[in-house]
Amino acid sequence: MTYLASDNRYEAMKYNRTGDSGLLLPAISLGLWHNFGGVDTYENGRAMLRRAFDLGITHFDLANNYGPPAGSAETMFGQMLATDFKPYRDEMVISTKAGYHMWNGPYGEWGSKKYLIASLDQSLKRMGLDYVDIFYSHRPDPNTPLEETMGALDQIVRQGKALYVGISSYSPEETAEAVRILNDLGTPLLIHQPSYSMLNRWIEDGLQDVLEENGVGSIAFCPLQQGLLTNKYLGGVPEDSRAANPTSFLKKEQITEDVIQKVRQLNNIAAERGQSLAQMSLAWVLRGGRVTSALIGASRVSQIEDNVAALNNLEFSEEELAMIDDILKG
């Protein structure tokens, strides 16, 4: 059946300017880190992508190694672009990354020019694209000069393979230096993708200031702490959860009684706000306009719908923020 996007797909979504650039990103973006790989059900992924776009999510975030197996999420998204999404390419922001292990040998990970450019060429083939909108250095490389990594990003833009460039998980100091190098090269840094949630606030210790001072946007990954900031773990660890999966990045031992007690208290505040815990957690990440977009993951359509509904209430009173801080500080 031919896919026709919803006529009112832009009515409810909020769009934020990315730093000092002209690019607007949806307040909620969809990442394909999990549940869109070759081991997953194609039709479920297809349904989630369709529904996300119908809800105004125009930004889809990938990486070379997303799957599993590595590369298969990009292949799946390429199928969507060839069929359902073909008429809508120019209404979408598509990003991918390189930095983690992708293939064997000395050129298959980290931040060398050799790896970054070869990886993007492979990503473009998997997705059937001439260019991506944003290409990221997925992580800093302690053994490659930052000038080389940033020079590769600049070259990629000049080759027309990406419109903008970003970095992910760089420290405040590394970010400031990346900004300086890219400005000198004439390819400004568009965006930083850090992990950020109520349970992981490291970017508040300097990184957000660096980004604001330099007109760089930010998109927070794991804003729900891989499901911890939802109602999933309020009663323990369900058998079908990420924490119960031995291959997941979220481990059972991370879900301590102290964490569960905090999550339960946060859930009470969310209920008083008329929100699910996930909705309040996303609203909290987006509070004050310091974060451009919250990058969600999903395993079913209803999760995307619930997350987008967070935009119905993005405001916090000073009392609510103080209560949340007290809970988080224990």
Average pLDDT reading:
95
Strand percentage, roughly?
5-15%
Work out the helix count. Answer: 10
The rounded distance between the terminal residues' Cα atoms is: 52 Å
What spatial form do the alpha-carbon principal axes imply? globular
Number of strands: 10
Oligomer classification: single chain
Biggest sheet record:
8 strands, parallel, barrel
Q: What are the low-pLDDT stretches, counting only 5+ consecutive residues below 50?
A: none
Describe the structure.
By secondary structure, the chain is of the alpha/beta class. Helices cover 36% and strands 14% of the residues. Helix 7 crosses helix 8. The longest helix is centred in the C-terminal third of the chain and has 16 residues, at 257-272.
Q: Concise description?
A:
This protein is α/β, with parallel strands linked by helices and 330 residues long.
Secondary structure elements and their pairing?
Elements: E1 15-17, E2 24-26, E3 28-31, H1 42-54, E4 59-61, H2 72-82, E5 93-98, H3 113-127, E6 132-137, H4 146-158, E7 162-168, H5 172-185, E8 189-193, H6 207-213, E9 217-221, H7 257-272, H8 277-286, E10 293-296, H9 301-308, H10 318-329
Parallel strand pairs: 3-4, 3-10, 4-5, 5-6, 6-7, 7-8, 8-9, 9-10
Antiparallel strand pairs: 1-2
